[in-house]
Amino acid sequence: MSRIIFVPQYPTKLRYQEWLFWKLPDEFEKAGLRVHVLGKNAVTYIKAANGGMFSPIESAIDLETAQIKEYMSMSLEEDDILFMADLSFPGLFGNVLFHKRPKRCFAYCHATSLNILDYFEPDRVEKFPIETSHANLMDVVFIGSNYHDKKLGWNNTIVTRLPYPPLETFKEEKELFMVSASRPTPQKVDSALESCIENENKFPIVRKDCLNWKDYYKFLSKAKVLLITSWEDTFGYQIVDAVLNGCIPLAPNRCSYPELLPPECIYDSKEDLLKKLRYLSTLEVMPPTPELLCHQEMEDFYKNIIQVMKGEMLSDRPF
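^ that's the sequence the OP posted. Answer follows.
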């Protein structure tokens, strides 16, 4: 029986790595694999992100240090498989694979410093070659969208989407017409467009800082429309969150959004967005959302990556 050496990210609150921290190893075990989670005892409780970062810097470094120390003390077995939960932030751990590497290594990558306006974009010249070198150590890098695959240009990638969140969903009474759940950064918010929509065209946009998944999902469920104006995205989990909680996402015709949503949820211009908003604002009852998002890769995410890692599928675009 193969053993998975699982290298999780620090599980930041209200980011998907919080639940992937426990969900991925759980699914590996269900598939009959032995799982060794590196550094799990180094996370006593999950801390909130600070200063706009995805993870508290000191806590993330403490986790990686513990993972490296634990990994270097291990004896590797013949059929070991190493799986890095997110190659997007290769950090310190990836470097040890240059010195101690199992025969098979895999990773998920949700983004890289190629993203325009990203927090790390100013460091792209130094950071992207590091990400690429770590990716080259992997047999396969699983990624979330064809958009991201084309942008990266790596030759060992497979698009698997991301799995449906294993979290409670809600069907709240609709109290709000339109909400925004994006980080207030130039990457995630087109402030000029949102100002035009809100101030010139009188479509109010409600924003809320949610402290836990339940509050966040309830917030989405109370709204009829989720407005997305991002200039850059990777997979687009906001879309999934909205659809699962009965909220209709409207997203620009860029990034991965056209891969995930039907044309009626995609806008090509400010005028197109306003037209869709005016139509939705006249509806007493909003159309059901589940059929907006039908991607078998999401449903089969765990099964697909496990089959690739176990050699039961060819790694050159099996899905």
